[in-house]
Amino acid sequence: MVAGHLIQGRAGEDAAVQLLETLGFQILERNWRCRAGEVDVVCLDRDTVVFVEVRTRGNAARTSPAQSVTRSKVTKLVRAASFYLSQRDWWERPCRFDVVAVVHATQGYRLEHIPDAFSFPQTLGRGRNPWQPW
Length: 134
Prior knowledge:
Layout: H1 4-22, E1 26-34, E2 37-45, E3 48-58, H2 71-88, E4 95-105, E5 108-114
Parallel strand pairs: 3-4
Antiparallel strand pairs: 1-2, 2-3, 4-5
């Protein structure tokens, strides 16, 4: 039996992908994993590579889905994205990080797409460049 929060999370990701496709994004990957972590959705917005973090919460949650993206999560997402870019030799392509916030309410889903949702310092912890996968 699958836990309820996993079912809710998967349904939220499905809704987020539908929204991104409606906005004209080309979906490249879902739940892309590497040793540095996972990226929920990798897509193209014209020529820009977009790494999307999907956050799903119930209507009664104390914080909004977007507020739940912590510095730790940003660090992991940036490192995973660097592996993705390295694997495809896409370092010269423009990229950004978006968040899709999904709230599961009784009448359905409420979605908010936040393009270029966060920025990050040139170094993240221990003086390493976040774009260096090694």
